[in-house]
Design goal:
Layout (H helix, E strand, L loop, with lengths): L5 E7 L23 H13 L4 E5 L13 H6 L9 H9 L5 E7 L5 H14 L4 E6 L4 H6 L8 H21 L6 E4 L4 E3 L7 E4 L4 E4 L12 E4 L4 H10 L2 E4 L4 H17 L8 E10 L3 H12 L4 H12 L22 H5 L11 H8 L7 E4 L1 H15 L3 E5 L5 H16 L12 H6 L26
Parallel strand pairs: 1-2, 1-13, 2-3, 3-4, 4-9, 9-10, 10-11, 11-12, 11-13
Antiparallel strand pairs: 5-6, 7-8
Helix pairs in contact: 1-3, 4-6, 6-7, 7-8, 10-12, 13-14
């Protein structure tokens, strides 16, 4: 049976996102990132192309590893200025009916009690189309901004995340019974207090004694994304994630990561096919190969090498300003993110990278592959990629926006549909129902189901 390919658009509430320098291209609109009209137009375009979701990245903190200063990030708009992604969702949901929204939120600096309410609120306002990309952060600048001296060690951050998930599961799944809200006008009773239950948690990192402030939303727990592919990240994904996003420059890098997470999922008692795998890719399309190649050459003229290395320094914790451009990149172990450094050092033993090559590659779309060609040749490449990696879909980054996404909608999507690889219509229901074809809420064996309200043991809210 032909595997239906899922597509997310990969963007961020900032200028250029992962194509530093491309904001100067005359066709790019990302410098309007702080205007609702930009996001509304983008959401309409993505829904026209039947994208599964807009996956919104985020980072709390500034990329100040390059040159030990934020100057390069500020000068090149390397993900700063950056606005809150959550505040975009309601406006985009109002002009769409089906598009999902996967929003990155760093749990390390957001207390679980108010955060749970924010996500429930968005699940209500989108009628069940919200997802959460669970991240723990990787920048010391974020920790300092939150009043800490530095971030916790890499694996310790995942220990904190495990406890955080327990707390939010309790709030989303265990506080309110499904029938707690009566809306009984005749008796003047909105909620039955006996069916709302206090969450009590006293752990190493969090202490909560409260009821959840929101009534049950369509999905209760948002669709859960996760993007870490270190060993600890894979284990966390196998336990909690419904969708996993990974980046890497080649199928040789991505395939073993997909296989590892599926294996860990089995060990966690989950169906490995119940976790959808998305890898990053950038596509540059033309009606002919010559047109696509000319478009790629034009885009490359706008790459900002300093901006690209500023991003890479932040992702890896390595100051690339101290490297010669033709110096080979060697692996460095530190407490920053692990995936980006692995991508350019040891993930593919047959490939070495110089600093210059890293800057050129990252300069358009980040660390994923860049596919250039006609709709037919790009579709061929995608089919091959899916077969080699076993991913379920793509997080499509952009060179310029909205132009890259318009080309995908107008040129690539019809070709994928023609091949039977892409949906002709959206499925009904919530984000979770559209992705998995089953109920709106998480079920056994997902750990969230362990906290589903049990009226025999719950303590009534005071």
């Amino acid at each position: 049976m032909t595997k239906e390919i899922r597509l997310n658009a990969f963007a961020m509430n900032c200028v250029a996102h992962q194509s530093p320098g491309l904001w100067t291209h005359p066709q790019d609109r990302t410098s309007d990132y702080n205007k609702l009209s930009y996001w509304i137009d983008l959401a309409k375009t993505l829904e026209r192309g039947r994208f599964d979701a807009l996956f919104l990245a985020d980072v709390l903190g500034v990329y100040d590893v390059f040159g030990a200063s934020p100057d390069a990030a500020l000068r090149n708009a390397a993900q700063v200025p950056v606005n809150d992604p959550l505040l975009l969702v309601s406006a985009m949901a109002a002009v769409t009916e089906h598009l999902g929204f996967g929003v990155t939120c760093t749990l390390s600096y957001k207390p679980p009690y108010p955060f749970a309410r924010r996500m429930s609120t968005l699940d209500h306002l989108t009628e069940g189309r919200i997802g959460w990309n669970i991240v723990t952060g990787y920048l010391d600048s974020a920790a300092k901004g939150a009043g800490k001296n530095q971030q916790k060690a890499h694996d310790d951050r995942y220990d904190v995340a495990e406890e955080y998930m327990e707390v939010v599961y309790r709030l989303w799944e265990g506080s309110w019974q499904d029938d707690a809200v009566l809306r009984d006008r005749a008796r003047g009773i909105f909620t039955d207090p006996s069916k709302v239950h206090r969450v009590r948690h006293d752990g190493e990192n969090y202490k909560v004694d409260a009821i959840h402030l929101s009534e049950p939303s369509p999905q209760r727990t948002p669709v859960l994304f996760q993007a870490g592919t270190s060993l600890r990240g894979k284990l966390f994904a196998a336990q909690h994630a419904e969708c996993v996003f990974m980046s890497g420059p080649s199928a040789k890098v991505i395939a073993p990561r997909v296989a590892a997470i599926r294996t860990f999922a089995v060990e966690a008692g989950r169906d490995p096919r119940a976790i959808l795998m998305f890898s990053m890719m950038t596509v540059i399309l033309g009606h002919t190969e010559a047109e696509a190649a000319a478009k790629h050459a034009d885009l490359k003229r706008y790459i900002n090498h300093e901006g690209a290395l500023t991003l890479m320094s932040g992702w890896t914790g390595v100051d690339f300003s101290t490297y010669d451009l033709d110096q080979e990149v060697r692996h460095v172990h530190n407490e920053a993110g692990r995936t980006a450094m692995d991508n350019i050092t040891r993930a593919d033993p047959d490939r070495t990278w110089t600093v210059r090559e890293v800057a050129e590659h990252v300069g358009i779309g980040g660390i994923g592959p860049v596919i250039v060609g006609t709709p037919e040749s790009v579709a061929d490449a995608i089919e091959t990629w899916v077969a080699q990696t076993d991913v379920d879909g793509l997080n499509l980054a952009f060179a310029i926006s909205p132009g890259s996404f318009e080309d995908i909608v107008d040129l690539l999507v019809p070709e994928l549909v023609r091949r039977g690889l892409y949906k002709q219509t959206y499925a009904p229901g919530t984000f979770r129902e559209k992705l998995f074809g089953q109920g709106a809420r998480l079920t056994t064996p997902h750990p969230a189901s362990l906290y589903r309200h049990d009226p025999q043991v719950a303590i009534a809210a005071e």
